Structures are given as C-alpha cells and as structure tokens.
Amino acid sequence: MNDQRRRPTSPSRRPGRPYRRPQKDPVRILAFDALRAVDERDAYANLVLPPLLRKAREQDGFDDRDAALATELVYGTLRRQGTYDAVLGACVDRPLREVDPPVLDVLSLGVHQLLGTRIPSHAAVSASVELARVVLGDGRAKFVNAVLRKVTQHDLDGWLERVAPPYDEDPEDHLAVVHSHPRWVVSALWDSLGGGRAGIEDLLEADNERPEVTLVARPGRIAVDALREGLAGEGAVAGRWSPYAVRLTEGGEPGALEAVREGRAGVQDEGSQLVALAVANAPLDGPDARWLDGCAGPGGKAALLAGLAAARGAALLAAERQPHRAGLVARALDGNPGPYQVVTADGTRPPWRPGSFDRVLVDVPCTGLGALRRRPEARWRRRPEDLAGFAPLQRALLARALESVRVGGVVGYATCSPHLAETRAVVDDVLRGAGPALTAELVDARPLMPGVPALGEGPDVQLWPHLHGTDAMYLALLRRTG
Question: Which one-letter DSSP state was computed for residue 461?
Fold first, then answer.
C-alpha cells in the first residue's frame, strides 16, 4: 500500500505573494497620454497638453504642482529625446526601432526622471514600472524595470561620456547627442550662426530650456502697464525689448487669464512682436493708410498690427489661405478699435490689385527651426528635404508681396527659422529675379529694434534664443522702388 502523504512545506517554497494591483499615478498617466498623442497623431505638445491639464484639474484634482510636474515630464522628455535614445540604445539588447512605441515612451519618461530631474532614482524607477503596469501590462513592465535599472548605473554626464562621440573626432555628431538635436539641424544652425563652439553650444542649450510665457498688450484694447499690474500675482514683469510685452516669470496657464480670454492680450513671443513693430515703424515715402498681413494665421502679428494701424487711422487687411486659420485670425482681431478685414485668400494668387498697400508683412510658412524651445517635437519631425518643399512657396509669397505694395511702400519678409535657405537665400533670389518693372531695395531693419543688441551686420536681422531670449525670428525689410 502506497502511503502518499503530503510533504511539509519547505521554507524555500513558500506560497507566492498575492497579486497587487498597480498604483495609478494621474500625473504620469497624463504625461504618457500626451506623448502618445504627439507620436501617434503628429500633435504638438503645446496644443495637446493644456486641455489635458484642464481636464485633470476638473476630474483628478490636479493642483499647480501636479500640472508643473506633468508639463516638465512631457517637454523635458521631448526636448532630450535624442540624448535619451542614445542612452536607451546602450541599455536595450535590440534596435530601438524594434521596441513598441508605447514601451519606448514609458522608458523615455523614466530616463528623463532619472537623468533630467531631481527625482530620486528608486522613486523614478518605481513610478515608471507602476506606469508600465497600468498602460502596458505586467509582462512589459518587467522589461521596463530591467532597462531602467541599467540606466541608473550612471548619471547624465557619465552616460554622455559613453554614448557621445568625442568632439575632436566629430563635432556635429557630438553636439547632436549632447544637446539632443538632429545632426542636420546642428549643422544648419551652426552655418547660420557662424563662429566657434561656444556660440553653437549656447544656442543648442537655449533650445532645451523652457521659455517664459510672454504676453502682448494689444494696442487700443489694454495698456501694457495695466496688463502688468493686473498680473502682479503671476510674477509679471516688463518685456526685455518690446514696449508691449509682459513676461510671466512664474509660468502658469495663460489661457486662463482674463485679459487673454477676452482678447485684450495675447500669448506672443517677443521676437514676433519685434518683427511686427519693425514693419509698422519702417519709414515710408507717401501715404500710410493701407496695411496687409499676407500670411496672417493664427493671428498674433495681425492683432498687433491692427492695433498699431488703428492708432494712425490706417486699416489692416489680414489674409489667410486656410479657412480654419482665418477663423483664428478673426477671433484674434475681434474687438480691435479700428477698421480691419479678414479674408480667406492665397497670398501666392492674391485677389487684390497690385500696388494696393503701403505696408505688407509676410510671415511665411517654414521649418520652424527657430521655435524649437516651444515645439521641441518639431526637431524630430523635420527633414532636410522639407526645405525644398517650402522654397517655392516662400519665394512666391515674397514676390507677390512686392507686387502688392505700392512704389515707396515697405514689405517685411519674416520667418521663424534661421536656416539660410529660408532667409537670405529667399530674399536674394527674389530681388535678383524681380525684373525691371518690379525693383526693390533692402532697408536696414536694425534701427527699428532700438535697444536690442547683437543684431549683426544688417541690413536684415536675425534674432536668437541665447542672445535675445526670443525665438530665432528673421526679418528682411524691402522698399519697392519701381
């Protein structure tokens, strides 16, 4: 008779631990959702994040600290994506392109917490693993845990010594990894900036800093002193260069401010304000009654120009090709004290007669390499071949703008890119090809930005984040002479 008695439980074979449900962290889940929207829908973080934060305040009880952490996680991860990919590439046993994008987003959020914040390493790993359990499942959470524990072996400087090539061997690739920019962008910015290593490193580092929120007090709707005094509790101070600028040194959500909601003020980088002011103040020969913004969407510069025009008894025509953006322009101009009109029109085939305007601004579509502080994901989406796609449009818009202004009138060609192919090359080509019936001369734009240093040799102007604290706006002023 076989006596099959139950063996006593060995201390080494204790029953498994009961399953523990993952802890949901609303801040990190929101950050993950924002990154997925940027990746899956080619959305921009500055458009995706505000509604997510508003919803979180209403439903999850987010406070200012929660919102600040979520914002830092999203923007910090996007800005440093190139550096973090290099680190992850050294910690993952297969090419990153073979890692599922949602897993990669969780890993990148974890790496940013480990290498880019003051969050303790154990807390960063633990929070990332819990996030992975919630959004990916327990199986892939183990993979996340293993990879992030490898990342904890070095700090950021230690990893850069391992994953960035030496500067002396490949300067551009070194800067690309250390400062998290695509190599071709580093090369293009360096060509535009000129100079040695210090200048380009300062520029790339400035691209990775979160910019202050800057408001514009729209002329005729609110005085700049009144705007600043009304926002004293938000850390509001005067702008550096524009007489209409107010900076919010403590951040916050500008869309929640009463003056912004009512359209009396707007969110606008100081570089954009300087461009509009220069076009408005450029010296003219003859009357000054009809102004045109030929690429007006989404309406920031048009709203400033409309207020300035109204103060002089002039009228602004704001033209925008895309109907939904024309609607944004109309909303921005609603409440302007003087005459204006918003039309849906293609600036390359304008419906108005040649020579109709005294002042014209064309802020042309471009790669946006000058606004990488505000749209960090743009650096990873743009390709060198995009330049060829924008080139014909930029030249056509400037040529039609010159036709639209009368003899003696002024055209401002602006772009939020410092790339030489989108700035001086466009202006030079249009001037050379204008022909004897449409001649123009460059006007020195530097005196029209009083007090702003380091504006170069002229006559055009290139602003820089590291020198001026603005987006890298470019402006060339042209006066039609024949």
Answer: E
Same domain? For 338 and 374 the reply is yes
Average pLDDT, the chain: 93
Query: In the numeric block, which tokens belong to residue 89?
Result: 């590439």
What is the tens place of the pLDDT at every residue in 306-353?
999 999 999 999 999 999 999 999 999 999 999 999 999 999 999 999
Q: Is residue 393 classed as helix, strand or coil in its secondary structure?
A: helix
Domain of 62: which CATH number? 1.10.940.10
| pLDDT band for position 102 (cuts 50, 70, 90) | very high
Residues 442 and 342 in one domain: yes
Share of the chain above pLDDT 90, in %: 87
Mean pLDDT of 23-30: 94
Same domain, 386 and 424: yes
Could you say which of 267, 285, 306 is where a domain stops?
267
57 and 169, same domain (yes or no) = no
The verdict on residue 252 lying in a domain is yes
Q: Is 91 a catalytic residue?
A: no
- From the candidates 91, 295, 366, 416, which is the catalytic residue? 416
Do residue 236 and residue 287 come from a single domain? no
Together in a domain, 261 and 370: no
Mean pLDDT of 115-120: 97
Residue 227 covered by a domain: yes
**Domain around 129:** 26-156
Pick the residue with more confidence: 6 or 86? 86
Residue 8 included in any domain:
no
